[in-house]
Specification:
227 residues; alpha+beta; 2 domains; two-stranded antiparallel sheet; 6 helices; N-acetyltransferase activity
């Protein structure tokens, strides 16, 4: 069931606040839907769910055209969905677009059976989710070394901000010569600013997962689940 009105964003408190903001718009997608406010909200969210969520006509494509900035608040590039957008545009061989038959709940409560597109890893020989582990911090570090990332803090959280165009340009420039830019090397990249902290948790869909946070001091994390 895809229910844009009631489905949680599953991307943290800020995205949930935007979803509930008066007048907010939300795109319809099998995965990676967007909520938006402001003068470009209708443009960003008015997309055809029958196309891939990373198609240039999608919300990602429109934000690329609008020269959007990506903000990573308290997380590393591991959480950057814009890197998957880069993978789609680079046509990486280990991921593919697949059709999903879904039930869509409209705002008036009516139900519609329809097809939506998803973008997922291809089946692996080992049965693991990925054939080789990704390390999106590698591209992130290259952006930082090129002076393309603004880094600051809010409280204990490390904040990184970069132009989506800079990331996509880097991907399209490097990928033809090196198809391993998305994959982990012998050791994962250790970003020079901030520290990583991991916590096991239950996400908003009730699934077990591990959060990787980018913080100044891991010992100063306020864990509300223990309060």
């Amino acid at each position: 069931m895809i229910d844009p009105v009631n489905d949680k964003s599953e991307m943290g408190a800020i995205s949930e606040a935007i979803r509930h903001f008066p007048g907010a718009k939300r795109s319809i997608a099998y995965r990676h839907s967007f909520s938006a406010v402001g003068k470009h909200a209708e443009l960003i969210t008015n997309v055809d769910p029958a196309i891939s969520v990373f198609d240039l006509r999608s919300a990602f494509g429109k934000m690329l055209a609008l020269d959007t900035k990506v903000v990573l608040a308290g997380v590393t590039y591991v959480n950057s969905t814009s890197h998957h957008f880069g993978q789609y545009l680079a046509q990486v061989p280990d991921r593919h677009t697949i059709e999903r038959q879904v039930t869509l709940r409209h705002p008036d409560g009516t139900l519609e059976e329809r097809m939506m597109m998803d973008y997922q890893p291809r089946p692996t020989t080992s049965g693991d989710y990925y054939e080789f582990p990704y390390d999106f911090n590698k591209l992130g570090l290259w952006l930082e070394q090129a002076g393309k990332v603004q880094i600051s803090t809010i409280g204990n959280a490390v904040i990184r901000s970069f132009r989506m165009r800079d990331l996509i340009e880097l991907v399209l420039m490097k990928y033809p010569a090196d198809q391993w830019i998305f994959f982990q090397d012998a050791e994962p990249v250790d970003l020079p600013f901030g520290k990583n902290a991991t916590r096991d948790y239950i996400d908003e869909a009730g699934r077990e997962d591990t959060a990787i946070w980018a913080v100044v001091d891991p010992d100063a994390i306020c864990d509300r689940s223990k309060s």
